[in-house]
Design brief:
heterodimer, A: mainly beta, four-stranded antiparallel β-sheet, 3 helices, B: mainly alpha, 2 domains, two-stranded parallel sheet, 8 helices, globular
């Protein structure tokens, strides 16, 4: 069992496993993380990341029990996403590529977010389009 | 106005303060520090000004806060009168600037051009992104009862992004929720030496003439 934390949520996959070469997910379970393996590469919706032909063995392998496996951390490395793994190798946090985010932020468009208030009601920044927004942080600590 | 609490302790941690402040604006809870990551808010309080079209006109900056707190009496939390007065003055300058923007919009002298927004946006760097991944892992481990492993992740996040006080202080909270602002916090602040805790604010009357 491996737990994967990423920007669109947390997924625990019973038949995922990790070793020194990476985090291996049964191809059939990739959908739980929003990915799909197609001939053109690893795809999320209409966007596909081509797998380098010469390095296919770093990304895909066949296991006699679990079937075809895909290396999620290798994909993260290809997309220049940061990965943090627990010492036991049972929890992985996969972040977003810093250069993509820096480019967006420097472009000046305010990234949208959705967060709850005390009552649990979700508010989105984009609901306030058409008004000026003063976005300010604080903390109890 | 939207306020966001960077509190991994969630509503339980933030509620007493929100109950006292009785805000009429959306007052949101950000357990993952998602807004901190998206907007490069490395500390609290920090603010971003966003115009009607969803464009950032002032990127993340300390909103009127300053390093005066470092002179605080660490037992009584008392601050000398002149430091209190300077705190009040800075807050007033910042609030006046905010009101000026609300009234005059793009004509306000406090609105940055697109070029200035770009040049005043720091990153995030690759190290910042890795720090947030380590913080996310640490948070999950801490909340799964694996405190020792969590502290290893937090230490790595702090090593990668030493200027990120939100991560540092949240890590101290996980370590001792009853006293996150204890001796460890103060020794980290003291270790800054001549370096500032709050980044300078590029505003006339504050840190820019």
């Amino acid at each position: 069992m491996v737990t994967i934390l990423c920007s669109n949520g947390t997924a625990s996959l019973a038949s995922a496993s990790s070793d020194a070469s990476g985090l291996w997910i049964p191809v059939a379970e990739l959908a739980q993380l929003g990915w799909e393996l197609r001939p053109e590469g690893a795809c999320r919706g209409d966007v596909c990341v081509p797998i380098p032909k010469a390095r296919e063995r770093d990304f895909v392998r066949d296991d006699t029990k679990a079937g075809r496996l895909f290396n999620l951390t290798e994909l993260a490395a290809l997309r220049r996403q940061p990965v943090a793994r627990s010492e036991r190798g049972d929890v992985f946090a996969i972040g977003e590529a810093s250069d993509d985010r820096a480019r967006l932020l420097r472009g000046g468009e305010a990234p949208d977010f959705a967060l709850p208030d005390l009552a649990g009601r979700i508010h989105r920044l984009s609901e306030h389009r058409g008004k000026k927004v003063f976005l300010v942080s604080w903390a109890s600590w | 106005m939207i306020s966001v609490a960077f509190d991994s302790g969630g509503a339980a941690a933030a509620k007493p303060w929100i109950d006292l402040a009785k805000p009429t604006h959306p007052s949101l809870i950000d357990v993952e520090h998602r807004v901190a990551e998206l907007y490069e808010m490395v500390n609290v309080p920090m603010a971003v000004w966003i115009d009607e079209a969803g464009r950032i006109v002032r990127p993340a900056e300390p909103s009127g806060a300053s390093d005066g707190f470092r002179q605080m009496d660490r037992k009584t939390f008392a601050l000398a009168n002149e430091i209190m007065a300077e705190y009040g003055r800075r807050a007033q300058v910042y609030k006046d600037a905010l009101r000026d923007w609300v009234r005059r919009g793009a004509a306000s002298e406090h609105v940055f051009s697109a070029g200035d927004v770009a040049s005043r946006t720091h990153g995030p760097s690759e190290a910042d992104a890795r720090a947030h991944a380590c913080f996310a892992l640490g948070r999950y481990l801490a909340q799964s009862g694996r405190s020792d492993e969590a502290q290893v992740c937090f230490a790595e996040a702090v090593r990668l992004a030493p200027e990120n006080w939100s991560i540092r202080r949240q890590a101290l909270w996980f370590e001792s929720p009853e006293a996150p602002g204890g001796p460890k916090f103060w020794s980290a602040v003291d270790a800054l030496g001549e370096q500032s805790y709050y980044r300078p604010v590029r505003m006339r009357g504050l840190d820019e003439r």
